[in-house]
Design a protein that fits this description.
Shape: globular
Protein name: PLD phosphodiesterase domain-containing protein
InterPro entries: Diverse_PLD-related, PLD-like_dom, PLipase_D/transphosphatidylase
Number of strands: 23
GO molecular function: catalytic activity
Distance between the termini: 53 Å
Keywords: Signal
Oligomer: single chain
Organism: Taxus chinensis
Largest sheet: 10 strands, mixed
Length: about 500
């Protein structure tokens, strides 16, 4: 029955996209989710597509070109590999978990390669045990499929390719949190956006892809410097065109140029970052006369181009776009007010400061949903507790006249504490699953959908991309998705420290 539903969905989408008279003024977009099995009390938001269906649609309907940015690959389950989180689970278990959907997606990619679709894949080196083997299989013996591995640690000292992007025929795009892993389709909660028939946006995302591709052909030892980063107070490796290097000592970038700031170190916020003015039809909102601004943001900042904002600025501007007494909603897997992977720790108060600013100055309410799962970062709670202290400051003086507040909840997918190989007693789900993996935010007027966890490294040493929009229908639907999570029994309030009550 479920396969009949998939076929009906794909046929419906195909009919929707078949109008030959459509042009650039009719870009279309859908929000996309993966919802893990065994979450009966989570309200489903109408009009939201499934990650697995969308990615199969993209692979199955690419006719000339397909570009993919991936962190790693495990579309095919590995129940016989003792190094895999799938180890030990039976065929009926994997069927129940939804593993066949990954099989179907890999088959769709294989069929695209057989159709002679020109396919390029940029990926990280993979994760244990062998999570880049599948892309190698797609490329083996085919001149039309090229896959390359990019080690960002050779350019920034740490970091990985963490973006999850698909670009089809230079007009259809997926940007979101879903990895090329069967578990991301059925056992991990994911959030993304699917944009169709939109060459304007696809072209800009394609430039970012080309920047990553270009790095793989360059000798990093000839294009990097180790410098003192005065903004973050650490000594670290960066590309030689980085704005963290004095402008007289920078090399000429082999990538498209970005706004230059002589006399200024680092990447200060752009006052007028580039906005995309395209017409986006969204579910329930078609043929409107007004176009709303959208944008793209990128990390690390050295890979951004033209007047596009850094990904950090994209998140900050979304928070600060809150109306007076408005609401900001933020959902992330990881939250940390510092670096996670640097040898020398970087303190990073940027997002926390932006939140405190809108609470005190705009009396805004900020709701933050953070995943609590088997690999929860140990000192996350201390940073979240410090953010809750904003509420104490807000009410510390009658002169503040402050009615804003910060609310924080942990999101616990059922079974989060029973994941791993079946050979370990007590595990009932595969490893690295049962987690809210989406990274997105919205204010009253602006939506931001990204691929980066809210940790310093993801903005300064890791490849990530976000799409954002002021389109009210996107903002409204994303709000419904967040509220469904927030109001569910899976969201547990974080209690403030006892000495602040």
């Amino acid at each position: 029955m479920k396969y009949v539903c998939v076929v009906v969905l794909l046929v419906t989408l195909q009919l929707a996209f078949a109008d030959e008279n459509e042009n650039e003024r009719s870009c279309r977009s859908w929000l996309v989710q993966s919802i893990p099995t065994d979450m009966p009390h989570l309200h489903r938001v109408p009009g939201v597509l499934s990650s697995g269906d969308v990615l199969r649609w993209i692979a199955g309907n690419s006719s000339t070109k397909l570009d993919i940015i991936a962190q790693y690959w495990e579309l095919l389950a590995q129940p016989h590999n003792p190094k895999s989180g799938d180890y030990g689970y039976s065929a009926p278990d994997l069927e129940r978990f939804g593993a066949p959907l990954g099989n179907a997606l890999f088959k769709s990619l294989n069929n695209a390669a057989d159709r002679n679709v020109s396919t390029r894949i940029v990926q990280h080196s993979g994760v244990s045990p062998d999570y880049d083997e599948e892309s190698a299989r797609l490329a083996a013996g085919r001149h039309n499929v090229k896959n390359t591995t990019l080690l960002l640690g050779e350019w920034w000292g740490s970091g990985i390719v963490h973006a999850k992007v698909w670009i089809s025929d230079e007009k259809d795009i997926y940007i979101g949190s879903a990895n090329n892993d069967w578990k991301s389709l059925t056992q991990v909660k994911e959030l993304g956006i699917y944009i169709v028939n939109c060459s304007t946006i696809a072209e800009k995302v394609g430039i970012y892809f080309d920047n990553l591709w270009a790095l793989t052909s360059l000798n990093s030892s000839l294009y990097t410097k180790t410098v003192w980063d005065n903004e973050w107070q650490v000594r670290r490796k960066v590309p030689c065109w980085s704005h963290f290097i004095h402008y007289r000592q920078r090399c000429k970038s082999p990538l498209p140029s970005r706004v230059e700031t002589p006399g200024v170190l680092g990447y200060p916020p752009l006052e007028y970052p580039h906005m995309l003015h395209v017409h986006l039809d969204t579910p329930g909102r078609k043929n409107r006369t007004r176009d709303y601004s959208s944008y793209l943001s990128f990390s690390p900042p050295e890979l951004s181009f033209y007047r596009y904002q850094t990904d950090e600025q994209g998140w900050i501007d979304t928070i600060k776009s809150a109306h007076f007494k408005g609401t900001v909603r933020i959902s992330t897997m990881d939250w940390l007010g510092q670096s996670q992977y640097m040898k020398q720790t970087v303190y990073w108060p940027t997002l926390s400061s932006a939140i405190s600013e809108v609470v005190l100055s705009k009396h805004a309410t900020v709701k933050i949903l953070v995943a609590y799962w088997a690999h929860f970062i140990n000192n996350t709670e201390q940073y979240l507790q410090s953010l809750l202290y904003t509420n104490v400051i807000c009410s510390s003086s009658s002169d503040n006249r402050c009615s804003g507040k910060v609310d924080i909840k942990y999101y616990k997918v059922p079974g989060f504490n029973a994941t791993g190989p079946a050979s370990v007693k007590g595990n009932v789900y595969p490893g690295y699953t049962r987690v809210n993996h989406g990274k997105y935010a919205m204010s009253d007027v602006r939506a931001h959908i990204g691929t980066s966890n809210l940790v310093w490294d993801y903005f300064y040493t890791t490849a990530g991309i976000s799409f954002g929009s002021y389109d009210p229908s996107i903002v409204a639907q994303l709000t419904h998705i967040f509220d469904a999570d927030w109001d569910s029994p899976y969201a547990i309030p974080l209690q403030p420290p006892l000495n602040t009550i």
